[in-house]
Amino acid sequence: MSDTDKVYPTGLTEAEAQEIHRHLIQGTQIFGMIAAFAHLLSYIYSPWLK
């Protein structure tokens, strides 16, 4: 039952693993942009380093 298309131990194919990885990286980038924007807004409205 050895399938060379699977990436073990997850059982995903190479294409599926790359798709999940791409979405994970995209989600992390979007979260980072939102966090940076939120920090910028909080700095503008209450400058804590001035």
Give the structure's gist in a few sentences.
The protein has 50 residues and is mostly helical.
Q: What's the helix and strand layout?
A:
Layout: E1 6-7, E2 12-13, H1 14-45
Antiparallel strand pairs: 1-2
How many beta-strand segments? Answer: 2
* Series of H and E elements: EEH
Number of domains: 1
State which percent range the strand residues make up.
5-15%
Terminus-to-terminus distance:
65 Å
Could you list the spans in which at least 5 consecutive residues all have pLDDT below 50? none
Instruction: Trace the largest sheet across and list its strands.
Output: 1-2
Outline, from the CA principal axes?
Answer: rod-shaped
Q: How many strands, which pairing sense, and closed or not: the largest β-sheet? A: 2 strands, antiparallel
* Separate helix tally: 1
Helix amount, in percent?
Answer: 55-70%
Alpha carbon gyration radius: 20 Å
Strand-pairing-aware structural class: mainly alpha
**Mean pLDDT over the residues:** 86
Descriptive overview:
With 50 residues, the chain is mostly helical. It has one domain. 64% of the residues lie in helices and 8% in strands. It has one helix and two strands. Strands 1-2 form a two-stranded antiparallel ribbon. Strand 1 and strand 2 form a beta hairpin. It is rod-shaped. The model has no long low-confidence stretch (mean pLDDT 86). One of its GO terms (cellular component) is plasma membrane.
Q: What keywords describe this structure?
A:
antenna complex, mainly alpha, rod-shaped, 2 strands, two-stranded antiparallel sheet, 50 residues, single chain, 1 helix
